[in-house]
């Protein structure tokens, strides 16, 4: 044990470790990994979005404070475990919530507060661009936010000189480079898989539209769209190094030195694919957090455009169908908090993890269809089901069976409800899936959410030891891959080869196949869920 600890100490001091930072919806997490890609330490900082002027946002001050807090927590954890504080790393990677809109002027001044993926105010822009491109442009995408500002004649629209995602922004602050990983870029504007860059035909179509608007005296960006977007980079590419200003942004103490290489910044979808080794065709993953989404790597393009499916890419640029649901595990967390308060009122000292564990265990004893209960986890709008706003709901009929087991099974089913509707569309396209890998905190409790997800999508679900590590670990692996390419440019592996041969070669997976009784029960629940959407819609209109 002492020799192992000494070896880790030496690796930390020599910078033979890799740092990953992911800015999630409720948590900013930093993960430190060793040469074997195993987690060594972590740090986190909790934060929440704000709903201001009817927009979901985070302030840039909160971004900076959160980065410093998460990094400091990581350093504290390293010191407590190994007796040394890191002053350098072999590489750094940054990821964050995909999509959204951070727009800047020619003087690099933020023009409007950050508009996150959670906003569903871009319906008109989404519809117009989808028709213009013949390609589904979801409400969340950065180009939809820009074009909605154009349609609404917002004063800032002609002043936009650069717009990016949250990961792209943080990377810019750390390195001075306005670049973005191809996976994250695919949530800004459509990517051409053949070139690995933005689709040239669609860029030209948008510029023509902007020219027509300007000729008619209407608002439009002043420059060609390509000039406003960040440069697209694939996994392993040179994305710059940490500057002195970037080092101070992360570490106010001054201990962290500049010059550390960074990998291209990625979105949480891309890091989820890496964290679950699902970057090859016929593989996919489900990431469950504040939002929940499935990524399925395609063998060929889809035959039709579907509003339920986003066409994005892996961090290496391969085509992916994405089913993105705005609402994930937050409502489950709220109910766990309520039950935790009740336990505390009875004098229990149970931790939050204990409460979650007990509630999830109870769900296993519920009736296969949830006993006739119905729940919606909609804290915000849900584009797949056509709702601009959300209202969390729980309902039952007089003949339903209300029990803790049925209640909790229904709540877990509800977290997967919208996702399974989107996956049904994908199945209708004939897409084959060998296995679905799952990660995120929802899967920390073994054998519960994994089992129910298998029933919801009708496919085996695999969970590995890194399921709870999530995107911070995934982007740390991407940073390690960048270092691999840098050190052996002529003999480097592809991302898929690197993950399979270097990261997951000895990984142990727990694979759960769909249980027929669960599948039948979930199907009955989903029928009830679809019928209940009318109730959810009425709630948004009247509450």
TrEMBL record:
Pfam families: FGGY_C, FGGY_N. One of its GO terms (molecular function) is kinase activity. Residues 285-481 form the Carbohydrate kinase FGGY C-terminal domain. InterPro entries: ATPase_NBD, FGGY_C, FGGY_Carb_Kinase, FGGY_N. GO terms for biological process: D-xylose metabolic process. The keyword Transferase applies. Keywords: Carbohydrate metabolism, Kinase, Transferase, Xylose metabolism. The keyword Disulfide bond does not apply. Residues 18-208 form the Carbohydrate kinase FGGY N-terminal domain. Transmembrane segments: none annotated. Belongs to the FGGY kinase family. This is Sugar (Pentulose or hexulose) kinase. It comes from Zhihengliuella halotolerans.
């Amino acid at each position: 044990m002492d020799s192992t600890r000494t070896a880790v100490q030496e690796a930390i001091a020599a910078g033979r470790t890799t740092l990953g930072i992911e800015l999630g919806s409720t948590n900013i997490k930093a993960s430190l990994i060793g040469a074997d890609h195993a987690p060594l330490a972590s740090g986190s900082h909790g934060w929440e979005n704000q709903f201001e002027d009817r927009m979901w946002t985070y302030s840039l001050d909160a971004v900076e404070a959160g980065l410093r807090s998460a990094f400091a927590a990581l350093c504290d954890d390293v010191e407590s475990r190994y007796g040394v504080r890191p002053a350098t790393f072999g590489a750094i990677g940054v990821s964050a919530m995909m999509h959204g809109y951070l727009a800047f002027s020619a003087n690099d001044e933020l023009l409007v507060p950050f508009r996150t993926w959670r906003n569903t105010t871009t319906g008109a822009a989404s519809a117009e661009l989808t028709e213009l491109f013949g390609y589904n442009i979801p409400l969340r995408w950065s180009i939809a936010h820009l074009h909605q500002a154009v349609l609404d004649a917002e004063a800032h629209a002609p002043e936009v000189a650069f717009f990016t995602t949250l990961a792209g922004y943080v990377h810019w602050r750390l390195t001075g480079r306005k670049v973005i990983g191809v996976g994250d870029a695919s949530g800004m504007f459509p990517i051409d898989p053949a070139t690995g860059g933005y689709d040239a035909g669609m860029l030209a179509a948008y510029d023509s539209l902007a020219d027509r608007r300007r000729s008619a005296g209407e608002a439009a960006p002043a420059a060609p769209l390509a000039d406003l977007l960040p440069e697209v980079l694939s996994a392993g590419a040179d994305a710059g190094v940490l500057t002195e200003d970037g080092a101070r942004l992360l570490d106010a103490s001054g201990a962290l030195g500049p010059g550390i290489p960074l990998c291209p910044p990625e979105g949480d979808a891309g890091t989820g694919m890496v964290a679950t080794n699902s970057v090859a065709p016929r593989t996919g993953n489900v990431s469950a957090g504040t939002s929940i989404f499935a990524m399925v790597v395609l063998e060929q393009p889809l035959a039709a455009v579907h509003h339920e499916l986003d066409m994005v890419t892996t961090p290496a640029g391969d085509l992916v169908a994405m089913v993105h649901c705005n609402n994930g595990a937050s409502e489950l967390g709220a109910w766990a908090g309520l039950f935790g308060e009740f336990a505390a009122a009875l004098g229990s000292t149970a931790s939050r993890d204990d409460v979650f564990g007990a509630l999830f265990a109870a769900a296993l004893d519920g009736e296969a269809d949830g006993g006739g209960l119905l729940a919606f986890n909609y804290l915000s709008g849900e584009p797949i089901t056509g709702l601009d706003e959300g209202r969390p709901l729980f309902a039952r009929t007089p003949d339903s069976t209300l029990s803790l087991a049925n209640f909790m099974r229904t709540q877990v089913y509800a977290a997967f409800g919208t996702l399974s509707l989107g996956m049904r569309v994908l199945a209708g396209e004939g897409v084959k899936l060998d296995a679905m890998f799952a990660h995120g905190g929802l899967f920390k409790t073994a054998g519960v959410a994994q089992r129910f997800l298998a029933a919801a999508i009708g496919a085996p679900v695999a969970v590995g030891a890194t399921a709870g590590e999530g995107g911070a670990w995934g982007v740390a692996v991407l940073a390690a891959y960048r270092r691999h390419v840098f050190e052996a440019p002529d003999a480097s592996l592809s991302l898929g080869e690197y993950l399979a041969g270097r990261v997951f070669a000895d990984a142990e997976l727990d694979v759960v196949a769909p249980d027929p009784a669960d599948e039948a029960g979930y199907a009955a629940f989903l029928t009830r869920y679809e019928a209940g959407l009318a109730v959810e819609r009425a709630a948004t209109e009247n509450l």
